[in-house]
Amino acid sequence: MSTLDVARTKLALTVLYLNKAEARDKICRAIQYGSKFVSNGEPDTAQNVDKSTSLTTKVFRLFKFVNDLHALISPTASGTPLPLVLLGKSKNALSTFLFLDQIVWLHRSGIYKNKERAEIIGRVSLFC
């Protein structure tokens, strides 16, 4: 078994695990958007729920870029037209944004201390 095959296998197992966390992420987003609707922008309990669940969804998105990395290194089925292959591999911009957004989240949570670099990374992630 080649090194690339081992990496693909390990990434596939990681993707299976991360997909379970994606369901929890969707539930948190539903709570977040519902509380936005209920609070109508007013500072009250519903707005506090919105703020706390937005941080929770960031946690659930940790390592989400691994799914796209797995798709990038996975071989395509033979006979797949090149435009379709390129379209599938073009999702890397989203995974780049997710990766950079995690660095910004780490800064906001106080784990990553370099403020200037985190601000630059945040601005760069907007172009992904």
Provide the β-strand percentage band: under 5%
Q: Based on DSSP secondary structure assignment, what is the total number of beta strands?
A: 0
Decide which structural class fits the backbone: mainly alpha
Global Rg: 18 Å
- N- to C-terminal separation? 35 Å
Report low-confidence residues grouped into runs of 5 or more.
Answer: none
What multimeric state do the chains show? single chain
Globally, the shape reads globular
Question: Averaged pLDDT, please?
Answer: 78
Q: How is the biggest beta sheet arranged?
A: none
- H-E string: HHHHHH
Helix content: over 70%
Could you outline the blueprint of secondary structure elements for this entry?
Blueprint: H1 3-39, H2 45-60, H3 65-73, H4 82-89, H5 92-108, H6 115-125
Helix pairs in contact: 1-2, 1-3, 3-5, 5-6
Structure description:
This protein is an all-alpha fold and 128 residues long. It is 77% helix and 0% strand. The protein has 6 helices and no strands. It has helices spanning 3-39, 45-60, 65-73, 82-89, 92-108, 115-125. Helix 1 (3-39) runs antiparallel to helix 2 (45-60), helix 3 (65-73) runs antiparallel to helix 5 (92-108) and helix 5 packs antiparallel against helix 6 (115-125). It is globular, with a radius of gyration of 18 Å. The two termini are 35 Å apart.
What tags apply to this protein structure?
mainly alpha; globular; 6 helices
Summarize the structure.
With 128 residues, the protein is mainly alpha-helical. It contains six helices and no strands. Helix 1 (3-39) runs antiparallel to helix 2 (45-60) and helix 1 runs antiparallel to helix 3 (65-73).
